[in-house]
User: Fold these one by one.
Assistant:
Number 1:
Amino acid sequence: MKVRLNKTSIDQLDLKKSDYFVWDTQLPGFGIRVYPTGRKVYLIQYRAGSDTRRYKLGHHGHLTVQQARKAAQAKLGEVAMGGDPSRDRQRENKRPTMSQVCDEYLEYGCGHKKASTIQADTYRLERHIRPVFGRRKVDSISQADITKFMKLVASGHTPKNVKTKPRGRAVFKGGTGTANRTVQLLGGIFTFAIQQGHCALNPVHGIKKFKEGKRERFLSKSEFERLGEALRSLETVGECRLAVQAIRLIALTGCRKSEVTDLEWKHIDWQHANLQLPDTKTGYRNIPIAGEALNLLRKLEEEKFCDRWVFPNSVGGPLRDLRKIWLKAIERAQLPGVRLHDLRHSYASMAISSGSSLYEVSKILGHRSQETTARYAHLSDGAIALQTEKTSRAIQMAMS
């Protein structure tokens, strides 16, 4: 059926038991499909090789006849130039969105990562990446988009208020550090997307990240005394004793938080007095323990709250959340702004000040390279001077 398509002629089209097509008499290939429900859809029909194909333009009512005709002329013009709008649309629909690639990445691209790292990646995906890029086609994201995204995260303008539990919310403030780590994650996702054939280029390559000042805080002897008193007082008032003991072990060994909270009884070699950690940030670690740290673990073994974890939570898993107790501890000790990780820095500081070499501290802390330990080099100057004084004095005494 052919008629001059205009508003009047379309409104007068009868509804039938099955859908049918009406073609325009002025623009060959332009038509409308009429459904029994009354729905009417503009389309074009054209030849692609030996095939006849149809391409939907939009619904009558959403588009006017003039708008539909103009769209039809454009698409039929593409066909005349050798194009295939239907094929192009199919390809467009197959192009994955960033959200779809993120799902793939979490399922297939994170096998080499630890559970805690995957959890941190998931937080950044849900709090920052998906809200901004989730619906975008992954191959449509440019370097300019990444640069703008970095600034948004740094300024705290990506979604920052997220419901976590029935009565709780997580607030995310952003910052340059968060922006850098989120963009670093994006770079890994784009690398994965290239490997899967979803895109050809990684827009994160060449992006200049924010400069981050190295924040290093070392506790003095008097500050350690205040912290010890604060931890003892928390135990006295009935606060979580295991969390307090975990914090003590971090202070006494210089271990990373995850190395202590994920510690299992089978990792402790009592005979040789060391911790044998198979899965740390830098791989396998053998950590000597002695003195108070060893005594702390022996007392916990006598009580043994769990057969697997040294520091179990209330449901039998590892006690990973020390934040609440730590904040109470630094408040009582009057140590505002001190982070739990600063105990690790402080351990290194104390070791060097006591005469340990950078190489020895590197091995104790499990640094992959001595370059990481080099941040403490300025602290070793005093220890070297002390050792030099002792050596000179010994020689002088021998020569007297």
Number 2:
Amino acid sequence: MYKIICFDGGGIKGALTAKMLEMLNNVIPGMLKNVSMYAGTSTGGIISLGLALGITPDNIVQLYAENGQEIFDPYYKFEIQRIDNGIGAPKYNNVKLKKLLEDNFKDNPPLKDLPCNILINTFSLNLDGFSWYPVQLTNFPGSPYLDVTTVDAALRTSAAPVYFPSYQGFIDGGVFANNPSIGALCNALDPEKANADMNSVRLLSFGTGFNPSCIKHDVKWGAAEWLNPMGNPPIPLLSILMDGVMEVDDYNCRQILGEDKYCRANIRLDKSFSMDNWKDVDYLIECAESFPLKNPQEWDRIVSWISRNF
């Protein structure tokens, strides 16, 4: 059986994903044994790389809880307060994130040395000047990214425009695939990559919570409004691009694999969360902790599917 676990992007909301995984792993202790591929985008890429390196889910939760403020600091809800940087600069630098990854990704091995297949979405700006293009950092034989280190892969996939500077000529893979599931499935079935049989594939997909965001009336917005950091959600255009593709990829995987081979684990949130507000971490973790009580049928469905397939 070819087992895939995928993790969506979502910034600090990865804390919810990690807590959900920790809870499921406590109920089904063997679910992370013999995983064939981890796939992730942005914060989900960091989780995927951490798991491939042997970091436990509870330790990943701890990383979010203890370091969110360091990564997203100072957090300004209102961009006008950020006069010192000006609107022409990213909200944060990646210095503290890089240090955190170097401290926790033991020995910082290249992707080729990971014990399982990996797929990390990022987007190349192409510093050579020809054309930008989407990139899947994988460690399948023949991949041009075998020597990319785990820290560099994590920083490439999480370099979200507006929030962080580009890294080594790459930006956040969420600009084309915030949900990595369909890409992971295609790589699994590709004869030149995993070459897995369709019937052997089992795909577990984790979201970072479904944000109840909407625009309740027709708008005549320009760039300033669509990219407004004070909007609800902040930077509406970026949120729409990332949220929309996640739902489409969920539908595509469900139709291709069916309910017996595919499971989506995602929590419907009661309010909208910014991807960079570290102050939400405790509440996001609480959302995951309360999920089995508030949604027992959905929790039982997920647990039952994992028990049968992982």
Number 3:
Amino acid sequence: MKAHWFWRPINNCPGRFVLVNEDPCLPLVKLVPNIDEATDHEIDGNRDKVVVLPIEGGGLISYIRSNGTVLHTLNTDAGFMRKLAQLGIEGGKPPG
């Protein structure tokens, strides 16, 4: 996944990367064709809907804004679990 898209490291967030892309509305299915394992979350205090998709080696966390734009993040195992804990989302164990 990391080789097919341009991911920029997120400052002060080890193991987390943000997708740099010209399409601000790029749906998750364009990044990962099989999104059956993705879960949607409404988080108190967070205005964006959060979509979580565990993948081998970590996971994707996407933030869907009210204006339709999407921010996709790619996370290592450690970065994924740390961010899920910060968001108060349980589970999200990567496959394998």
